[in-house]
Amino acid sequence: MAALIEAAREPDYPAEIALVVSNVPGAGGLARAEAEGIATATVDHRAFGRDREAFERAVQAVLDAHAIDIVCLAGFMRILTPWFVAQWEGRMINIHPALLPAYKGLDTHARALADGATEHGATVHFVTPGMDEGETILQEAVPVLPGDTAESLARRVLEVEHRIYPQALRMIATDYTLL
């Protein structure tokens, strides 16, 4: 999120970060957004119990109220229902700390190291109902170095994430404005 906010400060950047929504009250990203003068909202998923679609309908209402065009997931650790994904088809993107289709899900760095991978990286992709299965927009690899730990590898991958997520949003926002 911070990388997207930084990129959007540039006068020629084709997207505005208009809203930050969290499902976790008090999330650090909310304070950062507020400090930048960006509107924020919290829709606490716990208030909806196991009714995922009711939670997502509440999120959708917030997005509609703010006239949001593109959704960028950042640290949103919930699998979305097909209903919600369908509302944003081709307009919702996510960043994943692996070179998809390898290492979908969690603990990607430790899994890459355990497998003896020689490279790892990050992927920006469209969100689809399947976890980490959407079409790739951008990827960038980093080498796995001798002596790497999950933490050291994660730091290098995070640098890539901060670079390619704003690039991918630029691509999507530019194409979207041409529709």
Automatic annotation (TrEMBL):
Residue runs in coiled coils: none
CDD domains noted in UniProt: FMT_core_GART (cd08645)
All residue ranges annotated as the Formyl transferase N-terminal domain in the record: 2-169
Keywords, ordered alphabetically: Purine biosynthesis, Transferase
GO molecular function term, any single one: phosphoribosylglycinamide formyltransferase activity
Residue positions of the active site: 96 (proton donor)
One Pfam match: Formyl_trans_N
Residues that, per the record, bind (6R)-10-formyltetrahydrofolate: 52, 77-80, 94
Annotated site residues (Raises pKa of active site His) in this chain: 132
Family classification: Belongs to the GART family.
Name of the featured protein: Phosphoribosylglycinamide formyltransferase
Species of origin: Phreatobacter cathodiphilus
Gene behind the chain: purN
